[in-house]
Design brief:
With 758 residues, the protein is α/β, with parallel strands linked by helices. Helix content is 58%, strand content 8%. It is built from 35 helices and 11 strands. Strands 1-2-7-3-6 form a 5-stranded mixed β-sheet, sandwiched between helices. A hairpin with a 2-residue loop joins β1 and β2. The longest helix has 21 residues. The protein is elongated.
Length: 758
């Protein structure tokens, strides 16, 4: 759109057709000045445009010097009209200037909240990023629905992206967007931030004219074009922009990914299929026919599906291409768009099932491309240290998810693991330890790595905590631990510090943990913390970490648990008692793993006292006896005697069932091979009245359900066939087998097995 020798090129921020049309228009217009949408602080970054290491997708990162978390990104792809405009200006040596509202003002407005407060008063939502329009719908939808399309994405792609044209297309776009803005602004006012931006753009256009440029090309979002040609005076714009706040800004290039360009990432100016647009741009540059575009894309999809084990024949590919072309013709459009090709591939490749094509969404339509920036870009000291370690450890940042196996017995594997754990402490989750690792030892780790562009910003933010990864990770982690609300969180942080090989920070964290343990009266928290601490001691040996102080801390926590355990177990309800019983077993296993005789002896004495304490739930007593028998502190006869007392008629059915649950939970083999225990249980059940039997049966079934199927089957056979040999009550001379036969089906139900009693 040409107005007073100013050529307005309204674009979509990321589109191959828009980029192609812009290049044609710029070459035809031969402007002596180009104004490009973008903040003025990006001017120093233009020097790297022709750098061979600057490979899109990349983004311009602008952040407040004093608060790096306050940042904004301007992404570019090779099919972005802005990127092609930058390349054209460099090649043709045409002066280029960014003419959007400078980020020194934009970020300051976000900081002091003046724009947000004003918009909130007007009932609008504040802007989250520079490309948002504060609309809850795509303005192109209005044009799309009028033209018979489902949404603005399909309309724009059909009209612009797949049909690049020269200058006239921009006049049509300007007229269409003018109609859209008129309709929208009639219902809701333009946000104050958008008014600032467009006022600044008009000011820059006036200044370019004042500087004597005769042919000015303005490349900006199509949404802004109607506002830039409005007859608004310089005085009005100056009054609006007067007194804007400022903050100091830093700018740099960072790598970006196509997944962050996609609309599903939440990016306001995102497109549905960056991978498709990249392919379309590549084909447009080779002047490929429409048929070659669709056939090449479907062939690429088939090749990807074959790598995942799907059998896609060449005949299916040919048929899918023909079907896509036919669908486009039937729908009165050409060439086929993504929906046509998707339907064709679903029919021929997936036999109508869309499940098989889900892989294409991420790997093909969106793509996993990661950009690259020059090594000599301005960086913070923390970024420089990170880059140095990447080179030293031979690690590469990749957008695609990748498995990395590390052998901690080697210096290389251990150092890589340490770096990844330190990054985790900084909140940069580049990698996570895979739970699917087949190695059962502690010398091997399998990591899942996937780099995300926002990690670059996190590195800049964390520079406030130190100039090296190690020091920053230690300082940041200790600050986080000081705010931890529980011993469990403190323990988790301590474990991360150990894995990250930060001994000084470990000492500080242990001091915090000891202080918290000394003041807490929640023994259950100490019990939850102890097993993890024991695992740290064991794991530290693999990394050659000095764990003497940790062993002392384990001893201290064990003493506190022994002192407070009995009090903690009084007056518990059934559910809490069951949880405490599990905690007893966990602590017992941890101390056995540690294998310190003195600690184990003190713990077992505590269990003896707890089992003899009145007023505690039966499940705790039973669990104590099970643990003590396993440790050979008491023998099977003592357990059988205690069980006999617990199952006496004087005890309530629920208490007796709880005692039995604590003793036998998950221990079917003990009942199977211990004749004395089985005899006590048999005598107890046979002596129950009908009412007590019906009351206790559900509780017993819960216990027997924890046994393995084979254990339950063997136990039933033992009761049926081996009873006379064991001297159980079934062998008594006056035993009534007719009455017993009536009980056997119920026993089958309790044990969960099927048995023929014929």
């Amino acid at each position: 759109m040409l107005v007073d020798k100013v050529f307005y090129l309204g674009i979509r921020h990321h589109g191959p057709g828009s980029a192609d049309s812009v290049l044609r228009a710029l070459a035809s217009f031969a402007a002596d000045k180009i104004l490009l949408e973008g903040p003025a602080e990006a001017a120093p970054l233009l020097a790297q445009i022709n750098h061979p290491q600057l490979q899109p997708p990349v983004a311009q990162l602008f952040y407040a010097t004093d608060q790096p978390a306050e940042a904004v990104f301007y992404p570019y792809t090779r099919f972005s009209p802005e990127w092609q405009t930058l390349c054209y200006a460099q090649q043709s040596q045409t002066p280029l200037e960014f003419f959007d509202l400078p980020q020194t003002h934009a970020l300051a407005l976000k900081r002091n909240g003046s724009a947000q407060e004003t918009e909130a008063e007007e009932g609008q939502s504040p802007l989250d990023d520079i490309d948002s329009l504060t609309l809850d719908f795509d303005p192109l939808d209005l044009l799309a629905h009028a033209a018979g399309f489902e949404d603005g994405e399909q309309w724009w792609e059909q009209m612009v992206e797949q049909n690049p044209q020269e200058g006239e297309i921009f006049t049509a776009i300007a007229e269409a967007m003018s109609a859209v803005r008129t309709a929208i602004e009639a219902e809701r006012p333009l946000s104050l931030r958008e008014q600032y931006r467009e006022a600044w753009m008009r000011r820059c256009i006036r200044q370019a004219r004042k500087d004597g440029y005769q042919k000015i090309a303005v490349v900006c979002g199509a949404w802004h074009v109607p506002a830039l040609v409005q007859p608004i005076t310089a005085k009005q714009d100056t009054a609006l922009l007067k007194g804007l706040p400022k903050t100091k800004i830093n700018a740099t290039w960072i790598p970006w990914t196509y997944s962050r360009i996609s609309r599903c990432s939440g990016y306001g100016a995102g497109v549905a299929s960056p991978g498709w647009y990249d392919y379309l741009w590549e084909r447009n540059q080779t002047d490929s026919s429409h048929y070659a575009v669709s056939s090449g894309w479907i062939t690429r999809a088939a090749r990807l599906l074959r790598t995942q084990g799907l059998d896609i024949s060449p005949a299916s590919v040919i048929d899918a291409v023909r079907l896509a072309e036919t669908l486009a013709t039937l729908r009165d459009r050409h060439p086929p768009n993504p929906s046509d090709m998707t339907e064709a591939m679903q029919t021929l490749f997936g036999l109508g099932d869309p499940t098989a094509l889900r892989l294409l969404d991420e790997r093909l339509w969106v793509s996993e491309r990661l950009g690259q920036v020059p090594d000599d870009m301005p960086q913070t000291p923390l970024q420089q240290d990170f880059q140095h370690q990447l080179k030293s450890l031979r690690l590469q940042k990749e957008a695609v998810e990748k498995l990395l196996e590390l052998d901690l017995r080697t210096d290389s594997g251990r150092n890589r693991s340490v770096l990844l754990y330190r990054l985790q402490l900084l909140g940069i989750t580049w990698g996570s330890v895979s739970k699917d690792s087949r190695s059962k030892g502690t010398f091997k780790e399998t990591w899942q790595l996937q780099w995300r562009p926002e990690f670059e910003l996190s590195l800049i933010e964390r520079n406030l905590w130190g100039t090296a990864i190690a020091s920053a990770a230690a300082a940041f982690a200790l600050a986080e631990l000081s705010q931890a609300g529980s011993l469990a969180l403190l323990l988790e942080g301590l474990q991360q510090l150990l894995l990250a090989d930060l001994p000084a920070a470990v000492s500080s964290a242990m001091g915090v943990l000891q202080a918290r343990a000394a003041t807490t009266n929640q023994i259950d928290e100490l019990m939850l913390a102890l097993p993890g601490l024991v695992r740290i001691v064991r794991y530290g040996d693999v990394r050659a970490t000095d764990t003497a102080a940790l062993k002392q801390l384990v001893a201290s926590l064990t003493v506190r648990i022994n002192i407070g355990l009995i009090n903690q177990c009084r007056q518990l309800d059934e559910d809490t008692a069951r949880t405490m019983a599990d905690a007893l077993a966990t602590v017992n296993s941890a101390l056995q793993l540690l294998d310190e005789t003195q600690l184990n002896t003190a713990w077992q004495q505590t269990l003896v006292r707890l089992a003899a304490t009145d007023g505690i739930q039966g499940v705790l007593c039973g669990k104590c006896y099970r643990l003590l028998e396993n440790a050979h502190v008491i023998n099977a006869e003592a357990v059988a005697e205690a069980l006999s007392l617990a199952l006496s008629r004087a005890e309530e059915p629920a208490q007796a069932a709880g005692w039995l649950e604590g003793l036998l939970n998950g221990a079917g083999l003990a009942l199977l091979h211990d004749d004395s225990l089985r005899q006590v249980l048999d005598t107890y059940i046979c002596g129950l009245t009908r009412e007590r039997f019906e009351a206790i049966t559900p509780l017993l079934r819960r216990t027997f359900a924890t046994f393995a199927f084979g254990e339950r089957r063997s136990l039933l056979d033992k009761v049926l066939y081996d009873a006379p040999a064991t001297g159980l009550s079934l062998a008594e001379p006056d035993f009534d087998h007719t009455q017993a036969a009536l009980v056997l089906p119920l026993l089958d139900c309790i044990l969960g097995v099927t048995h023929n009693h014929g």
